[in-house]
Design a protein that fits this description.
- The complex is a heterodimer of chains A (about 230) and B (about 400).
- Chain A has about 230 residues and is α/β, with parallel strands linked by helices.
- Helices cover about 30% and strands about 30% of the residues of chain A.
- A six-stranded mixed sheet of chain A has the order 6-7-8-3-9-10. A four-stranded antiparallel sheet of chain A has the order 2-1-4-5, covered by helices on one side.
- The longest helix of chain A is centred in the last third of the chain and has 18 residues.
- Chain B has about 400 residues and is of the alpha+beta class.
- Chain B has two domains: about 180 residues, no CATH class; about 220 residues, no CATH class.
- Chain B is built from 13 helices and 15 strands.
- In chain B, strands 1, 3, 4, 6, 7, 8, 9, 10, 11, 12, 14 and 15 form a twelve-stranded mixed sheet that branches. A three-stranded antiparallel sheet of chain B has the order 2-5-13.
- In chain B, strand 3 and strand 4 form a beta hairpin.
- In chain B, helix 2 runs antiparallel to helix 8 and helix 8 runs parallel beside helix 12.
- The chains are: A alpha/beta (about 230), B alpha+beta (about 400).
- At the A-B interface, helix 2 of A face helix 1, helix 9, helix 10 and helix 13 of B.
Chain lengths: ~230, ~400
């Protein structure tokens, strides 16, 4: 593993059993991402992008192969160790925003560092500052349903930055939004990533400005190939 | 790392924002605790009240030894010269029993009181009719009142005074049949007695026509017996047991001393004690069913809540919440509902027990209110807490076992 690599996966395979049939979604994926790099993985729906991101984030285990995050092998980590790893180092942005519907904007963002050493006032201060950066300082007490799609995704992005992550995994961040909103979301995501030198891996099947990425990969039929 | 204050704050937030479910759960605990506390207090109160009633119901009987059985150590046959006369119980000739036996009976743990009595059939020297006299001890103890006659049986006149002599009371029907009135003087075996009371003792087992003091009855009987006198003996033992539940044991213990004894009682002690048992058992059963039902309901409700929040739990796990944080969050939510419901249930039950008359709750027409046991209140509250823990732990463990990717994928 390169000294500069934040995450590296070697020969990852993933099989799913669907109706007694074993289907191989990932077929020997090799990927090494350096600190501060922006990576885009593109491909059609159902090709294994989300599965790969889930494995990289420790949300799902691979069938075979190895994943190393910041020189820590994740393969045999317990659920609690993986939770700890995510809480301290990884921010995740989901396609459907995945905000908790009964929690306000600030509560959703703050939740990323709840049960850490940060006390409540420090958490609120940090969450408020982040939401201010994302132009949501006047929506702190709004419930997700009271926000626009773009605002909801910005809240999700703010939440991903809340724990000062080394790596952000974004699964279809502009999935089902209109081009204008997508542009706002992309700017909201990429600008702070560049400013803070955070590693970003984006999985997308839609139209996404590939030029923001340092490297682009294409995933098809379970194999990952660099897009030149 | 779990911070209790954060967890508590999150739990309160969840309950406030999922009001309908929280209220339903709280009402469940409230009903369970209040019903259980009210029922258990009512059971205790009803049992005490029933015991008080049963203390004078089905707790007494009389014992005698029939004349035809072989002579035993403590009993003998004493036959008068006149064959129409004799010691009888319900028309059956009996032996006389030494008063030593009564002293032994009084030492039996199941017996509250035993007293000697003389039930003697005698022929009137005036017109030749046959009647029975009952001689009971002057101290007029509990056994006499429950088996022979009591002050409450007086129809007219008064009860005979322990200190006076030469007085009797007549059974109402006997007095009417022979047209004897209060203050009349009657002749019994050549001795004159003044009638001071007319009584109706109902169906008491040692019922007679004429009631008098034991020593005066003994004097009359000795006159009739001729040469064979009573020697500190009686033919009937009046018995009051410690409670209706132990009457069988009391009889058995007496038979251990004189196996030939026969007993006469109301025969209502068994149904009385059984009815008491049935009521109490039913009430306990209902209380337990209510508790289990409510706990199952809370468990189901909490489980549904976790299933509904499957996505939220998946999100929290994805952003790094540990299993123990998820478990403590769900457990505290469940406990909070149990604490609120249990506390309100205790208050409601106290109000009900204080202000609703016992007649409405247990059907006994007793003044005042049902006593409230502090111990039962605490037990009710602790049961709610236990319900909260069980109803929280199971869904919490189910939630903690969810894989975040599966929770999020299944949306």
């Amino acid at each position: 593993m390169s000294e500069n690599a934040i995450i590296k996966c070697e020969n990852i395979t993933k099989n799913f059993k669907i109706k007694k049939r074993e289907i191989q979604i990932l077929k020997g994926i090799n990927l090494s991402v350096n600190k501060g790099e922006v990576i885009i993985i593109t491909g059609k729906s159902g090709t294994g992008k989300s599965t790969l991101l889930n494995i990289l984030g420790g949300l799902e285990s691979q069938t075979s192969g190895s994943v190393t995050f910041n020189n820590q092998i994740m393969d045999n980590m317990s659920n609690d160790e993986l939770s700890d790893l995510r809480r301290k180092n990884i921010g995740i942005i989901f396609q459907n925003f995945n905000l908790i519907t009964t929690w306000t904007t600030i509560e959703n963002v703050e939740s990323a560092v709840m049960h850490t050493r940060l006390n409540k006032s420090a958490r609120i201060k940090k969450a408020t500052a982040l939401l201010n950066e994302f132009g949501l300082d006047d929506r702190l007490d709004y419930l997700p349903a009271e926000l626009s799609i773009g605002q909801q995704q910005r809240v999700a992005i703010a939440r991903a930055f809340m724990n000062d992550p080394l790596l952000i995994l974004a699964d279809e961040p502009t999935g089902d939004v209109d081009p204008e909103t997508a542009q706002v979301i992309i700017e909201s995501l990429v600008t702070p990533v560049k400013q803070k030198s955070v590693t970003l891996i984006i999985a997308t099947h839609g139209v996404f400005p590939l030029d923001i990425a340092d490297r682009v990969f294409f995933i098809d039929n379970g194999t990952l190939t660099p897009k030149i | 790392m779990i911070t209790i204050i954060d967890t508590l704050e999150c739990a309160i937030r969840e309950l406030r924002r999922r009001k309908a479910r929280a209220i339903v759960n709280i009402i469940g605990y409230l009903l369970a605790v209040s019903i259980m506390v009210i029922m258990i207090n009512a059971i205790i109160y009803s049992r005490n009240a029933s015991n008080n009633i049963l203390n004078v119901t089905g707790t007494h009987f009389i014992a005698s030894v029939p004349a035809n059985i072989p002579t035993c150590e403590l009993c003998t046959n004493k036959t008068p010269e006149n064959k129409d006369e004799g010691f009888v119980v319900y028309g059956v000739p009996t032996k006389v029993i030494s008063k030593k036996f009564i002293n032994q009976v009084n030492k039996i743990e199941y017996i509250k009181d035993a007293s000697p009595a003389l039930l003697y059939r005698i022929r009137s020297k005036t017109d030749g009719h046959i009647y029975t006299i009952n001689g009971f001890e002057r101290d007029n103890n509990v056994a006499v009142r429950t088996t022979t006659c009591a002050e409450t049986d007086i129809i007219s006149g008064r009860f005979i005074n322990p200190m006076e002599n030469g007085v009797v009371m007549l059974e109402e029907a006997y007095a009417k049949l022979h047209k004897i009135n209060l203050t009349d003087k009657i002749d019994i075996a050549g001795i004159k007695f003044e009638v001071v009371g007319i009584i109706n003792p109902g169906i008491r087992p040692a019922k007679a026509d004429v009631y008098m003091h034991f020593d005066e009855a003994e004097q009359i009987i000795n006159r009739q017996l001729g040469s064979v006198k009573l020697n500190n003996e009686a033919n009937v033992v009046l018995v009051e047991t410690a409670s209706s539940m132990v009457q069988k044991e009391a009889m058995r213990a007496m038979k251990d001393i004189i196996p030939e004894l026969v007993f006469s009682s109301y025969a209502c002690y068994q149904p009385a004690s059984q009815v008491m048992g049935i009521n109490e058992t039913s009430a306990w059963l209902i209380a337990i069913i209510v508790g289990i039902f409510t706990m199952a309901l809370s468990l189901k409700s909490q489980l549904s809540s976790v299933i509904e929040r499957r996505r939220d739990i998946g999100i929290l796990k994805a952003i790094g919440w540990a299993d123990e944080s998820i478990i403590s969050q769900i457990l505290i939510e469940s406990l909070l509902q149990a604490i609120i419901g249990g506390f309100l249930g205790c208050i409601i039950s106290v109000i009900v027990l204080m202000f609703i008359p016992p007649k409405v709750i247990i059907g006994l027409d007793i003044s005042g209110h049902i006593n409230i046991s502090f111990l039962v209140l605490i037990a009710g509250f602790l049961l709610a807490l236990l319900g909260g823990i069980i109803a929280g732990l199971i869904p919490a463990f189910i939630a903690s076992r969810q894989k975040p990717s599966e929770s999020l994928r299944s949306l």
